[in-house]
Amino acid sequence: MTDLPTRLLGRTGVRVTTLGFGAMELRGAPRGPEITDQEAERVLNDVLDAGINFIDTSIDYGRSEERIGRFISHRRGEYFLASKCGCVVGGAQGEHVHTAQNIRHGVENSLRLLKTDYLDLVQFHRSLTRQELEQDGALQEALKLKSEGKVRFLGVSGTLPNLVEQIEMGVFDAFQIPYSALQREHEDVITRAAEAGAGTIIRGGVARGAPTDWQRTNYMLPGTTMQDRWERARLDELLDGLSRIEFTLRFTLSHPGLSTTIVGTRNPQHLRDNLQFARKGPLPADVVAEAKRRLTEAGSAPEPLPAVDARPRGAAQAATPARSAL
To answer: With the C-alpha atoms ordered 220, 209, 33, 117, is the resulting torsion angle positive or negative?
Structure first.
């Protein structure tokens, strides 16, 4: 048994560790930093040895799927495996085609590379409208793959404004959503997704937790905006001995609607640090409340959501029986 906290991934019924592993950094050059096979093998096995049971990857993460299949497929029963669809196998970075044919080709190629006969979760890698999901048969084909047992659950790597409609559709079991102390725009829609019975996978949960991150532009906002929010909110005054990374990760873990947050690294020491922080769990409630008050004043606040019925609808909501003891 792991000493990491776990939460239910919505109606899937699967308990996942609140700290998951984002495998994008295993992609290698030219899309990312160099990483050797030996380094990839080590970090993947360290992840599982530490008890993390949620791994997120994608077709367009370079060699990530291949390395997962090569180095830990023999431990398949130890982790919930999430990948993406809509990406073009062998395509350019960010190239996506949402046709039935491309959805099937992508999933079946992922199964081959990952050396498994099922994916626990397949997420559309773009936040599409319902019309875009259905017009060329992409969603219908994903549901067919689910009925064939090649996919257990369906999700979306989503953002506002389309997340609201995606939740209302009632066919998605999980949503991957950007969120951190410095990017709170999706704070309330995470709650809405959780209340509708979906699992929530937070990406960017430690984003902008260190000055080095402020030099980059990811998750739709420039690092200068993140730095400005941190400094205007005077968050350093709330650290009380914590590092900025620990504060930011534990702030993310404080969201009651969160199922897991995926944090990627190829550095074993960074992994150990993240594990230590996650084991401590959420920040104290009074610290979270004060941080939110300051952040709202500094311009990091949730987006207002329309008042709609978020209850899941449709027969597609029935959870697939668990295939492992996760």
So the answer is: negative
